[in-house]
């Protein structure tokens, strides 16, 4: 099946109040687990690779595998470049066949974020690809030095609905990542989501909204966020953590039984663990059974 861009799958989702999971991959096992989950759940899916994961695997190795597996899939797959800060890398992703890219200028002064986003929108649209930008910052405890708790409770980082409307109009961006209380990484303290703000942002812009920091929320928090306008949910930390925890359990179990294990055993477990968690999230986000709507 040809790769789709976010516009093709998210508009229907937005109108029908469900969301697509956007799952990060940093290995071939994750790619296989996600595609297997999407096919079994008959769900469209967004498979993404983050610029910050370049240390785990180079883009020119994982990118072509993502594109090839997406083309082979029996359901619509978006191949997305997540949190791009370097325009040259975004251009490389587009050349490799990615159907969607994110330009993350959220840390820049507003006018510079507008200019940078406009530039990337022009570039990506010439490839028929869609663009996600970010306004307000979800923060990342790994890079900012702040604790997850401090980031969640800092008002200054939340997206202003009026500014969101101005930003979308000026940049012509296709989807917008907004900040209303979630933060990247695993939560130390419980996040407090500002649904009123989310609702106001959704009513002030026409484009689908993206939730980053989608790991570890309750089923109710996901569903309420979708109800108030979230259509793409970035989900990685929890998934990556689950793989490590479950693989450790399996290794311990094998050791107790004196069974030898090999690296390929871990690879095969990883595919299964990813598949199971992704299918579970598709059910919660409401995209299960919606593959035909993404075509
Ligand atoms: Zn993010």
TrEMBL record:
InterPro entries: Aldolase_TIM (IPR013785), Class_II_FBP_aldolase (IPR050246), FBA_II (IPR000771)
Cofactor: Zn(2+)
Pfam families: F_bP_aldolase
Entry binding sites for Zn(2+) 2: 104, 134
Keyword Metal-binding recorded: yes
Gene3D superfamilies noted in UniProt: Aldolase class I
Entry keyword annotation includes Protein biosynthesis: no
GO molecular function, one term: zinc ion binding
Catalytic residues (UniProt): 82 (proton donor)
GO biological process, one term: carbohydrate metabolic process
UniProt binding sites for Zn(2+) 1: 83, 184, 212
Cofactor binding, per record: Binds 2 Zn(2+) ions per subunit. One is catalytic and the other provides a structural contribution.
Keywords: Metal-binding, Zinc
Name of the featured protein: Fructose-bisphosphate aldolase class II
């Amino acid at each position: 099946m040809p790769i789709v861009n976010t516009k093709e799958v998210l508009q229907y989702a937005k109108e029908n109040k469900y969301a697509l999971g956007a799952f990060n991959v940093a290995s071939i096992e994750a790619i296989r687990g996600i595609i297997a989950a999407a096919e079994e759940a008959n769900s469209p899916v967004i498979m993404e690779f983050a610029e910050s994961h370049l240390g785990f695997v180079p883009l020119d190795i994982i990118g072509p595998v993502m594109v090839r597996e997406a083309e082979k899939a029996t359901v619509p797959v978006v191949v997305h470049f997540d949190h791009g800060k370097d325009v040259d890398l975004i251009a490389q992703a587009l050349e490799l066949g990615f159907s969607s890219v994110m330009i993350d200028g959220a840390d820049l002064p507003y006018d510079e974020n507008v200019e940078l986003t406009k530039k990337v929108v022009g570039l990506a649209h010439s490839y028929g690809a869609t663009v996600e930008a970010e306004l307000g910052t979800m923060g990342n405890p790994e890079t900012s030095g702040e604790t997850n708790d401090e980031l969640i409770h800092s008002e200054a980082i939340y997206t202003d609905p009026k500014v969101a409307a101005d930003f979308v109009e000026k940049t012509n961006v296709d989807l917008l990542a907004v900040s209303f209380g979630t933060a990247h990484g695993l939560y130390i303290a419980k996040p407090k989501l500002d649904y009123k703000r989310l609702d106001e942002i959704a009513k002030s812009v026409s484009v689908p909204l993206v939730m980053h920091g989608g790991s570890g929320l309750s089923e109710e928090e996901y569903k309420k966020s979708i109800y108030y306008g979230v259509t793409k949910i970035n989900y990685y930390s929890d998934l990556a953590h689950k793989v490590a925890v479950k693989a450790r359990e399996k290794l311990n179990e094998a050791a107790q039984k004196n069974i030898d294990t090999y690296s390929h055993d871990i690879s095969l477990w990883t595919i299964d663990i990813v598949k199971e968690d992704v299918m579970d999230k598709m059910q919660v986000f409401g995209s299960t059974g919606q593959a035909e709507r993404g075509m």
